[in-house]
Amino acid sequence: MSYSLDTLLLHNRFKHDKQTGAVNVPVYNTSTFHQFDVDSFGKYDYSRSGNPTREALEELIALLEGGSKGFAFSSGMAAISTAFLLLSQGDHVLISEDVYGGTYRIITEVLSRYGVSHTFVDMTNLEEVEQNIRPNTKVFYVETPSNPLLKVTNIRAVCELAKSAHALTFVDNTFLTPLYQKPIELGADIVLHSATKFLAGHSDVTAGLAIVKDEELAQKVGFLQNSFGAILGPQDCSLVLRGLKTLHVRLEHSSRNAEKIACYLQQHPKIKDIYYPGLPSHPGYETQHNQAKSAGAVLSFTLESENALRQFLAHIQLPVFAVSLGAVESILSYPAKMSHAAMSQAEREKRGISNALLRLSVGLENADDLIADFEHALTYVEEVVISKKGVN
Ligand SMILES: *Cc1c(COP(=O)(O)O)cnc(C)c1O
């Protein structure tokens, strides 16, 4: 019998421990494993190479993403960086121009030192993507919806371009999770996650995951995971496993809240632009609707100026003002000074990440309470928007 993903979160191979019946995966706090036979070692030998708690998380995420194998890392950046180690000197990467700040940093400041070049493109513009393919392009790197401007890339179309160029497609699926978007089904080769965000969901752990499409990639990424060694410890694996059990209810509630808040912000005279692919007037709405089950729980918006933003921030009370997203509590972030601080002001402006932009990750509070909090804080904003651009 095949179950839907929400049921699979609870009823899977790990729902009870085979030896004891425990209803959670035991935390195997061990670095090494006794070998019972000098000639044939057991399945596990050393926890960097394999640990049963980590293995449960890795199998579960592979099942959810529809991949052949999953790998757990100590952070989203560890997962992303390890996947990039598939590249060699002389290779080229085509990458979304508004990727996560940490991904921007590793590609521009680290991989460049190892002879891996890159071109930033607007992945939503397929012509631009095609024009920038080089003979040595080996990876197309996609983040959709993108961070922080929620641009929507057509995953299937980019994967087809990549295939014709004999390159791999990596998709950062942090914002939607496999419950809402399944990049491997759309043609992607590797799916990457900051499990710190929605998958774990409680702002209590830093973790990353990579899921690969086939056995050949599984061999390569497994070798790199063990070589580089940025694995997730068993206690943190257990926290992510616990978070996953409630992923479905958390995402659904947060996304419904996000939709309500986006509609509220869209009509507010002190909000200039709103970025949320769940609004029918968003340019990526159609694509989002075709490739994902929901627009998710993250949205961004701008006020008239940085000054207006500061007045708003001084009075908003419910959301945490912090880096990160995808948690039970709503989180308001200031990309220019937080997630995208690694980017110069000129680079940020080129990408539309202005000093008047805020990103909201909507949590599990009551939507009306959140809206009332926004309404109250916005009364302190002096500047009404002069030319309302509306939806982006
Ligand atoms: C947070 C984040 C990352 C990095 O993950 P860490 O767990 O912080 O290392 C990568 N991609 C996206 C989209 C993120 O939001």
Automatic annotation (TrEMBL):
<dbReference type="InterPro" id="IPR000277">
    <property type="entry name" value="Cys/Met-Metab_PyrdxlP-dep_enz"/>
</dbReference>
<keyword id="KW-0486">Methionine biosynthesis</keyword>
<dbReference type="InterPro" id="IPR015422">
    <property type="entry name" value="PyrdxlP-dep_Trfase_small"/>
</dbReference>
<keyword id="KW-0663">Pyridoxal phosphate</keyword>
<protein>
    <recommendedName>
        <fullName>cysteine-S-conjugate beta-lyase</fullName>
        <ecNumber>4.4.1.13</ecNumber>
    </recommendedName>
</protein>
<keyword id="KW-0456">Lyase</keyword>
<dbReference type="InterPro" id="IPR054542">
    <property type="entry name" value="Cys_met_metab_PP"/>
</dbReference>
<dbReference type="GO" id="GO:0047804">
    <property type="term" value="F:cysteine-S-conjugate beta-lyase activity"/>
</dbReference>
<dbReference type="Pfam" id="PF01053">
    <property type="entry name" value="Cys_Met_Meta_PP"/>
</dbReference>
<comment type="similarity">
    <text>Belongs to the trans-sulfuration enzymes family.</text>
</comment>
<dbReference type="InterPro" id="IPR015424">
    <property type="entry name" value="PyrdxlP-dep_Trfase"/>
</dbReference>
<dbReference type="InterPro" id="IPR015421">
    <property type="entry name" value="PyrdxlP-dep_Trfase_major"/>
</dbReference>
<keyword id="KW-0028">Amino-acid biosynthesis</keyword>
